[in-house]
Amino acid sequence: MKNFIYKNPTKIIFGEGQIAKLSDEIPTDAKILMLYGGGSIKKNGIYDQVMEALGSRTLVEFGGVPANPEYEVLMEAVELISKEKLDYILAVGGGSVIDGAKFIAAAVNYKGEEPWDILAKGEEIHEAVPFSTVLTLPATGSEMNSGAVISRRSTKDKHSFGSPLLYPQCSILDPTVIHSLPKRQLANGVVDSFNHVLEQYLTYPTDAILQDHFAESILQTLVEVGEKVIENPKDYKMASNFMWSCTMALNGLIAQGVPTDWGVHGIGHELTALYGIDHARTLAIVGPRYYEHTFESKKVKLAQYAERVWNIGEGSLEDKAKQAINKTESFYHSLGVDTRLSDYTDDYEGTAETIEKRFSERGWEGIGENKSVTPNDVKEIIKATY
Ligand code: NZQ
Ligand code: ZN
Asked: Domain named Alcohol dehydrogenase iron-type/glycerol dehydrogenase GldA: which ranges (predicted)?
């Protein structure tokens, strides 16, 4: 196992009816920016629960954070915080709203030229406005990690960033919030969290026995609950296990001591930036083809995944590894998620070359756990998704 330092300071309050606990977590004298998305929280009762918990605290609302949160919109909230002298952010939403809160928290006191540099140039941040979250969509793990992904419409860019200063102080995880989620978003949550585990697991073997078992147990749970939670989000047993799996998939725990490969996400972000395809669906498109292309370096872990998650006991190591990729793709199909770029757009010709060029221009010469996936490989992987 590799050496590691692990600290995750986010307090999780989990369970039905727990949104009321916000009143114990947010200082009574906090001047709050309450951030939310397109308005689902006003229809499903979450907004009312949050308002009741916050009582008479000073609060300014900022709604309208779009899916794949946009820099231009978030900068309006940055201005609002400065104008109203607010000192706390409460994000009520899914990954997009929570990521938006992280960017706002980082941008308010940013001393550099323009806050976009935090994303485009990876500029470090030195302070952040404290924030907490009420999660409404299990998927990204953003509620218990310190990363965020922000888009810029004008340049069709989508970049990630992170800082130890950007862990939420507290996140409320009430599994009943998923009652109002459309099936499409439930399926996205299963596929996104599944891929988070795969990206931290499908590399090469190390002697991190416990990490492998952690990862496999999250994958097994998602396979067990995935279809059922989409079918009936009101089943609390399914909803609670689904929600906790999503959080555990990307809160740092399973990444400690092991190599990771965020290549599927890196390529997937380009498909969202270019075509607006839902984040999770880009992973379903790229993942199977990425694992086929990197088969030689990943086949030992792929075969282990085949045996332990898909119960494939027969065949050579290569056979098992190939079956694991097929099983993964079939799993996405069983959730109603398509896995070809051409399922999402007719305008896919040239996509591979465009993304190859973008990777080269950014100097992303080698991605993957061995830094061996070149822009040319990326082009081949994308062509294979057509
Ligand atoms: O905007 P509203 O009206 O709230 O509707 C949202 C949105 O349309 C709706 N929704 C959320 N909760 C709901 C609900 N509808 C009904 N009932 C509820 N309880 O769902 C739609 C999608 O929401 P969004 O927040 O965009 O989805 P998700 O949580 O999948 O977040 C995706 C974003 O997170 C980033 C992605 O790249 C993407 O930008 N990611 C963030 C990560 C992180 N910070 O660690 C890691 C991930 O890999 C991912 O990249
Ligand atoms: Zn993801």
From this structure: 9-175
Domains and CATH numbers, the chain: 11-176 (3.40.50.1970), 182-383 (1.20.1090.10)
Q: Is the CB of 118 under 6 A from ligand 1?
A: no
Ligand 1 atom showing the smallest separation from residue 36 Cα = 4
Token digits for 218?
A: 């999250």
Cα(373)–Cα(375) distance, integer angstroms: 7
Q: How remote is the CA of residue 28 from the centroid of ligand 2, in Å? A: 34
Rounded to 5 degrees, φ, ψ at 295 are -50, -50
pLDDT in tens, 249-305: 999 999 999 999 999 999 999 999 999 999 999 999 999 999 999 999 999 999 999
Q: Report the run of H or E that residue 149 belongs to, with start and end.
A: strand 147-152
Nearest CA owner, ligand 1 atom 19: 136
Specify the pTM: 0.98
CA of 320 to the centre of ligand 1 (A): 34
